[in-house]
Amino acid sequence: MALLPILCYPHPNLHKIAKPVASVDTRIQALVQDMLETMYEAKGIGLAATQIDVHERVIVIDVSEERDQPLVLINPEITWKSATTHLNEEGCLSVPGIYDGVERFDEVHVKALNEKGESRTMETKELLAVCVQHEMDHLMGKVFVEYLSPLKRNRIKTKMLKAQREDAR
Ligand code: K1U
Ligand code: ZN
Predict the structure, then answer these.
(1) Which atom of ligand 1 is nearest to the CA of 6?
(2) In angstroms, what is the span from residue 112 Cα to ligand 1's centroid?
């Protein structure tokens, strides 16, 4: 297993659109293990392959308190969305230290392959539903700050670039 570097906003590769996984083979299973290790080490509740500069439709999630219920979503598709939405506070491992409100569907049903290549449909709500929507946005090249106003987004971009310059010194 390996810890993988996480791309930081505004890295241009965060805007790449991920391609479907053709086959859940040993390469994808190794990628999933590395993504889980990286997510747990970063203390995140989710991670999309886009964030580690791999542009294939793979997501890992664990919203459990005990951090012992990993979920693997390969080629995820939302099959149903609730009529209602809610403003939720979100963070992102690619935008460290920034939290803000994003409107998300309250519940979504998602069909995906697991790490064994088996197709499953999950009915999600609360934090899991928010996390699924956030991670699926990453696979489409969208970072949560793009839901914020241009003013806020530009301030965040400037702050991130300044922090990255200081880290590079
Ligand atoms: O995709 C990511 O960058 C992971 C991200 C997932 C996420 C968090 C919160 C709402 C939606 C999606 C994180 O894990 S950020 C860090 C974190 O653990 C966290 C932040 C706020 C609330 C709950 C958890
Ligand atoms: Zn994120």
Answers:
(1) 3
(2) 21
Cβ of 38 less than 6 Å from ligand 1: no
Please say whether the beta carbons of 38 and 4 come within 8 A: yes
Closest CA to 147 of 96, 104, 108, 85: 104
| pLDDT for 1 beyond 90 | no
The string of pLDDT tens digits covering residues 69-91 is 999 999 999 999 999 999 999 99
135 assigned to active site: yes
Q: What pLDDT is attached to residue 115?
A: 98
Q: For the whole model, what pTM was predicted?
A: 0.97
Check residue 14 and report its DSSP letter. Answer: G
Q: What tokens appear for 138 in the block?
A: 């990453």
**Which of ligand 1's atoms lies nearest the C-alpha of 95?**
3
**Ligand 1 proximity of 104 Cβ (cutoff 6 Å):** no
Reduced to 3 states (helix: H, G, I; strand: E, B; else coil), residue 108 is strand
Q: Which two tokens stand for residue 129?
A: 């539903």
Residue with tokens 């939720």: 88
* Cα angle 168-138-58, degrees, rounded to a multiple of 5: 105
Sequence-separated (6 or more) residues with CB below 8 Å from residue 96: 8, 163
